C-alpha cells in the first residue's frame, strides 16, 4: 500500500486560486497560482492538475486536501443561492422585545425569511428551565411555513448554557416537516441571543451553497483520482473542519481567507508570536499571531449587513496594495488609494508600460522591488517618493493599532504585494520575508490543524467544586471536541483560555472560552 | 416632540455619550425601541411644564446584571405590568413615564414601555447621565420617597416594596432581581407634576437627542466641533496604552492609561473606572471627576466606547461634559461626588480644572 504522506492546500480567493503540496519537509513540494473561475470547480481542477503534475507528486500519495474558500462569504454579500429559512426563537416570555431578523437589510430579509416565531421556553443562566418549552406552538408554526421554508433555524435563550429546548424543538420540526435541514444555535455561536440567532439563520440560508461547495470538491477530487483523499475546509480560526461539518455549519468558513494567511506566515517562519502583513493588489491586512494562531477580534462582526457574534481574526485593513493608484492631490500632496488597478497591474502600471501611477512603481523606483522594464518618468519621481512615504506611514499605523501590548515584535510580510513593506518600521524588531510568501494562504490551509472549542458558563460556587474544577471540565470538553473533529489525541494542546467573571448572581459563575488544537491524526 | 424611527437613532447616540462609559450599550435597546414605535406609533415626549400638578409620573429602569440582557432581550409587557402595579398601589392613574437614567441602555427601554402602555415619556430623568446605584437619583436628593416601588420580571411576577428608604431599596431590589433570574424592571421614586420641576433634571431627553443630532450633523473635525457646540471639553486625544479591569461585587473596576498622540504627544492620563468613568488624572492632578460626564469616543467614528469594550491600541478621544447643576451642589456631591465613590479629593468643575491647567502651563 502506498503511504499517503502528502497534503494539498488550496485557497480560492477572489482573483487567484493558489495550491500547494506539503510533505514532511518544511517547504512546499509543488505550488501554483491560477485564475479563480466563476464556478469554483474549474479553478480548483486547474490548480490540482498543475500541482499533481509536478515532479515527486502523485495522486496516490495525497492523504488530505484542505480548501479555503470565500464562496459562502460571497454568496451572503451578493445574496446569491440563499435558502428560505423559518426562524424559531424559543424565548418567550424573556426575549420578545425584538423579533427575529428585525433590522436586517431589506433585500437580504426578503431573500432569506420564510417567517419567524417566538415560542415559550429557554433556560436561565444556571441552566434551570426559565419557561416550559411550548412544543405545540412549534408544531403550529411548522404548519404555517410548510411548503415555503427550505431550512429551519432554532435559537433558544441561554442555549450555550443548556441546549435542551433546541433539541426538543428539532424533534418537533422533524416530526412535522420531515428531513428539512435544521440549524441549532448552540452549534453556531456563543452568548448574545440576537447575534447568535442571526448567525444561525445565515447558516441555515447557506445550506444550498454548502452543498455546492462540497459537491465541487468531490467532483474535483474524483476527476484527479483523489477520491481516497480526505477533504477538509478551513474555518475562521485558521483550523479545519470536515466535509460533514462544512455541510452542517458552512457559515464558519467565513473569514477563513485571512486566517489562512496568518497561519501560513507562522508555518513558513516558525514564529509563534508575531505580526503579519498580508499585502494584496488592493489592500493590506495586518493581523497578529498568538501561539501560531490568529488573534481573534474581541467583538462580533457584521456579515452581509447583519450583526453576528463570530470571532474573526483581528485585522486592521488599509487600502495599500501593489495596484493602489497614486495621484497628486490639489495641494500637491500624494493621494494614495483607495482605488487600485488590482490584477491589471501587469498591464497598466508604469513600469509595465501602462499609464497608471501605482505603488508598485514607487516600490521599483525606491529599489524595494524589481518588476517590469519601463523606467518611471523623472517628472513623477517626487510624487512616487512621497506616496511611498505615505504608504509606509499607514502601514506603521496599522501595525501600531493591531498590537495589544507595548514592546516590539517581528513582522512577517506575505502576499503578492509584500515587496511594498519596507525593511524597517517603528515598533517592529525585524521584517521577515519567508520564501513562498505569495502562497502563504494555501500553505496555511495545508498545515492541517483541527481544533475544538468550548464557550459556556460554569457555576464556580462551593457546591459546584470551584473554579479549578470548572476550568478542568472546560479543558476536557475542548480537547474532546478537537479529537472528535479529527485531531491526534496525543498531540492536542490547549491554545487559548479566556475567563470572564459574571456579575450579580446567586452562585458565582464564570464564562470560559477554551480552545484546543492539534494536528490531524494520521489516516 | 416625538420619538420615532427618525429621532431614535440620534437619541440613542446621545444617550450613549451620557452613559459616561457605563449604562450598558444602547444597541439592543435601540432595536427594541424602533420595533415598538413601528408597532404602536411614535412616543410623545412631554415637558415638565405641561404636567398638571397632580399628575403621577412613574420613573422606570432596568436593574440587574448586563450579562443577562445579552440573552434576555426583555418583554415589553413589563412596562404595562409596572404601570398597573403602581396604579393599583397608589390608587390613581399614571400620567407619564420617565427614564430614571438617560445614560446608556436605560434611556431606551422606557421608550418601549411608553409605546406599549400608551403613556407619554417625560422630557426629564433622575441622573442626567448614568450612575450605578438606585439611590443616585435627583428624586432621592430632593426627598422623594423611594417607595412604593414595583419590581417585575419577564413572566409578570411582581414585588411591591413599601416603607423603605433608597439604600435599603437598592439592597433589597437587587436581591430580588437576582432571584428573578438576574434582571428585573423597576418603577421607584414616583412623584407628581408639582414636584417634577424640582426633583428631576428637566430636558434630559431633549439633551440626549440634541447631542446625537449634533454628532450626526457634524462631518468634519467631528469630536472637537461637537464639544464646541455642546459646551464640552476634549481632555486628550490618544491611544490606550494599558487596560486594567476586574469585577468586584458585581461592579467593573479598573483603570485605563491613554498616551497622547498628535498635539497631545507626551501627555499621559489615567481614567479611573467603576462601571462608569469616574475620574481622569494627569501628573498626579485631577483633570476631571464625577459628577462631570467623562466619555471615551472612537477618534475616527466618534462612537462611544463603553468600559467593557476598552482595549489596548484603541484610538480614543476622551471628552468631558459638565454635570447637571443639581449634582454640583453640596448635597448633590455628597451623593455622587468623588468622595461618594471612595476618592480622597473634593470636586472641582471640569471647566475650572482645565482653566487652572492652562494657567499653570502658560
From TrEMBL, chain A:
Query: Domain Hydantoinase/oxoprolinase N-terminal: where?
Result: 7-176
- Short name of one Pfam family for this protein? Hydant_A_N
Supply the SUPFAM superfamilies for this chain: Actin-like ATPase domain
User: What is the top-level taxon of the source organism?
Assistant: Bacteria
Which GO molecular function annotations are given, in alphabetical order?
hydrolase activity
Q: Which residues form the Hydantoinase A/oxoprolinase domain?
A: 196-368
The name under which this protein is listed is: N-methylhydantoinase A/acetone carboxylase, beta subunit
What is the protein's species of origin? Marinactinospora thermotolerans DSM 45154
UniProtKB/TrEMBL annotation, chain B:
Pfam families membership:
S-Me-THD_C, S-Me-THD_N
- State the signal peptide span: none
Q: Which domain of life is it from?
A: Bacteria
In this protein, which residues make up the domain named S-Me-THD-like C-terminal?
166-350
Residues annotated as domain S-Me-THD N-terminal? 8-162
Q: List the protein's name.
A: DUF917 domain-containing protein
| Upper classification of the organism | Bacteria, Bacillati, Actinomycetota, Actinomycetes, Streptosporangiales
